[in-house]
């Protein structure tokens, strides 16, 4: 075993029936999530293995939701994480996510297999491919759609992530970035691609508004390495494919290991080819309300955004299907609370 410091930069059975979720929440009865503040952040390293839960989006879409989930709502400013696939869509239309709105967050699209056609109300029109970063900043309001192209690869596999914007940035103008070249570093059977933030001297070109990091790790079957970490961050590791051992904990595909804070490094090992997604960030101190596709500070802000979307205000227009109707608001008040349930 050795570390990565200083290295040069350089099928599910129901899959064919699904229409995958994209970077959105398509639940017709979305739950209210209240989170934020530092009270639930451990003061040192921990091991919390979060298996996630199956979530049915629409009639046929099933994803594994890792954030928010029972026991953990945030990792830094990362506030939403769904893992979908690998799904065989060779004979199916694939992803079908009609136009829908966002406020107060950034969406991060990260594909391992397949292609997704992204269009938004700014006029952005790109086909997202594996290894490319699609970063959409909603700010005060944006709408977008995501669909598999008419002719698409047989497999679709990826993650959908949200980053909560701090109060200083949550009302900024919307923006979209697409980065085809991302920094990497390699060593000891690991190839790391930095999506956001910085690790081992490799810095992503993606715009961030709070201290955070996101790194895709491709592990060879003999990988055994130490990854440098920021001790002021909290971290978690998702296993999209293969089996790996992180800090001595064996992980199965689709699981999330929360590592807590206070770590300067973490050891990763693999006995077969595997992929990991490392997420981290400075604990997010602001309290937020998450409902449907909105991240806000109180219920009034959520209600206003819902009303504006229904009235065709603020969010603009985008191609990609009939716009989604906003669900009914829950009967209980939307009040921001803590980080853990």
Automatic annotation (TrEMBL):
<dbReference type="Pfam" id="PF05726">
    <property type="entry name" value="Pirin_C"/>
</dbReference>
<comment type="similarity">
    <text>Belongs to the pirin family.</text>
</comment>
<feature type="domain" description="Pirin N-terminal">
    <location>
        <begin position="63"/>
        <end position="163"/>
    </location>
</feature>
<dbReference type="InterPro" id="IPR003829">
    <property type="entry name" value="Pirin_N_dom"/>
</dbReference>
<dbReference type="Pfam" id="PF02678">
    <property type="entry name" value="Pirin"/>
</dbReference>
<dbReference type="InterPro" id="IPR008778">
    <property type="entry name" value="Pirin_C_dom"/>
</dbReference>
<dbReference type="InterPro" id="IPR014710">
    <property type="entry name" value="RmlC-like_jellyroll"/>
</dbReference>
<feature type="region of interest" description="Disordered">
    <location>
        <begin position="318"/>
        <end position="341"/>
    </location>
</feature>
<feature type="compositionally biased region" description="Polar residues">
    <location>
        <begin position="8"/>
        <end position="27"/>
    </location>
</feature>
<protein>
    <submittedName>
        <fullName>Pirin family protein</fullName>
    </submittedName>
</protein>
<feature type="region of interest" description="Disordered">
    <location>
        <begin position="1"/>
        <end position="27"/>
    </location>
</feature>
<feature type="domain" description="Pirin C-terminal">
    <location>
        <begin position="215"/>
        <end position="313"/>
    </location>
</feature>
<dbReference type="InterPro" id="IPR011051">
    <property type="entry name" value="RmlC_Cupin_sf"/>
</dbReference>
<dbReference type="InterPro" id="IPR012093">
    <property type="entry name" value="Pirin"/>
</dbReference>
């Amino acid at each position: 075993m050795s570390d990565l410091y200083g290295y040069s930069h350089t099928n599910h059975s129901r899959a064919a029936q699904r229409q995958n979720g994209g970077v959105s929440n398509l639940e017709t009865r979305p739950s209210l999530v209240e989170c934020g503040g530092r009270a639930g952040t451990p003061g040192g390293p921990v091991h919390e293995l979060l298996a996630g839960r199956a979530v049915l989006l629409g009639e046929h879409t099933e994803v594994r939701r890792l954030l928010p989930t029972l026991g953990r709502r945030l990792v830094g400013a990362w506030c939403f994480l769904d893992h979908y696939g690998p799904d065989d869509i060779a004979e199916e239309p694939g992803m079908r996510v009609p136009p829908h709105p966002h406020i107060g967050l950034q969406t991060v699209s990260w594909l391992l297999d397949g292609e997704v056609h992204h269009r938004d109300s700014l006029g952005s029109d790109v086909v997202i491919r594996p290894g490319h970063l699609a970063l959409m900043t909603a700010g005060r309001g944006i709408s977008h759609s995501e669909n598999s192209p008419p002719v698409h690869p047989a497999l679709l596999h990826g993650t959908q992530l949200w980053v909560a914007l701090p109060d200083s940035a949550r009302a900024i103008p919307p923006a979209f970035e697409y980065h085809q070249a991302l920094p990497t570093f390699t060593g000891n059977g690991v190839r790391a691609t930095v999506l956001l933030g910085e690790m081992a001297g490799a810095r992503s070109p993606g715009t961030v508004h709070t201290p955070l990091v996101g790194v895709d790790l491709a592990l060879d079957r003999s990988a055994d390495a130490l990854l440098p970490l920021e001790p002021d961050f909290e971290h978690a590791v998702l296993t999209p494919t293969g089996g790996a051992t992180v800090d001595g904990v064996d992980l199965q595909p689709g699981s999330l290991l929360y590592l807590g804070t206070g770590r300067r490094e973490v050891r990763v090992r693999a006995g077969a080819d595997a992929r990991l997604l490392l997420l981290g960030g400075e604990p997010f101190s602001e309290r937020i309300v998450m409902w449907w596709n909105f991240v806000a500070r109180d219920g009034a802000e959520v209600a206003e955004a819902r009303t504006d979307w229904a009235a065709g205000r603020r969010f603009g227009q985008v191609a990609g299907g009939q716009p989604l109707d906003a669900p009914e608001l829950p009967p209980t008040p939307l009040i921001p609370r803590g980080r853990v349930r």
